[in-house]
Amino acid sequence: MQVHVVHAHPSEHSFTAQVRDELLRGLADGGHTATVSDLYRMGFATDMTEAEYLRDAHYDATPPLAPDVVAEQRRINAADALVLVYPVFWTEAPAKLVGWFDRIWSYGFAYGQEAGGFPMKTLDRALVIAVAGHTEAELVEQGRLQAMRTVMLDDRINDRARSKDLVLLGGTSRDDPERREANRPIHLRRVYELAVGLGR
Ligand SMILES: Cc1cc2nc3c(=O)[nH]c(=O)nc-3n(C[C@H](O)[C@H](O)[C@H](O)COP(=O)(O)O)c2cc1C
To answer: Which atom of ligand 1 is nearest to the CA of 134?
Structure first.
């Protein structure tokens, strides 16, 4: 598969960065090819301009899109699968990735395709990998994992991929180093296996 990976973590010394590396290793071992948008390293601009807002909110596909938006949309449309890798910040993705959706999911691309322009393809696969401080059980108990699935899968991915999943890699907070150390290798192995078998 051709896979587009979007990574959003401010630190290269994070566990999430290790997850990204393990994902890329698994993709290569599985015979997949990958493009990567590392949003913090690229200095991806997350704030919508007023012109972008007016274009999207007023359903007007005529103003040209910014070059960074077009480049990212082309990477998506060249892929069979989209994989997002990020840490959970306040039950959401980091603002960097939320802003990526604000700008990349533009009118005429991710919705309003009848307006013409450059419509987004339907992907074969979307995989959302969210790294969390809390355990999966805690996030289920709090109702927060369901909230993340609703926002990421039901709204943002929606029918833009034929198959979609959110994988929660929990219990990685530094406030419980023993639990974190125990969970990390399990999570990394899971990500590697998911990457090798992506699309199967
Ligand atoms: C600003 C901020 C907000 C966070 N919010 C949450 C949260 O809502 N739920 C959660 O489970 N973990 C939360 N965490 C923990 C992160 O998911 C944490 O970074 C995670 O353990 C991944 O480890 P890493 O940063 O080494 O990649 C937060 C961390 C930060 C810095």
So the answer is: 11
